[in-house]
Amino acid sequence: MENKKLIAKNKKIEKYLLNLQNGDKKAYLYLGNLYDEGKKMLKIR
Q1: Assigned domain for 2 exists
Q2: DSSP string of 24-38?
Q3: DSSP 3-state assignment of 19?
Q4: Is residue 45 in some structural domain?
């Protein structure tokens, strides 16, 4: 299986994705809400 890279759609989302790695609860909430609303956050390459 080939490795795929996730690319954030904008800098704000990219910041929250990085904060997720540090266990930032606001990042989980923000990204979870985007997912729940059906907004596209990432591109897969």
Answers
A1: no
A2: -HHHHHHHHHHHHTT
A3: helix
A4: no
Identify whether 18 is part of a domain: yes
Percent of the chain with pLDDT over 90: 2
Domain encompassing residue 26 = 10-38
CA separation for the pair 25, 40 (Å, rounded): 20
Asked if 12 and 41 touch (Cβ cutoff 8 Å), the reply is no
Total domain count, the chain: 1
Average pLDDT, the chain: 76
Which is it for the CA torsion 7, 44, 39, 17, positive or negative? negative
21-42 core/surface letters (b: 16 or more CB in 10 A; e: else):
eeeeeebeebbeeeeeeeeebe
Confirm whether 19 is domain-assigned. Answer: yes
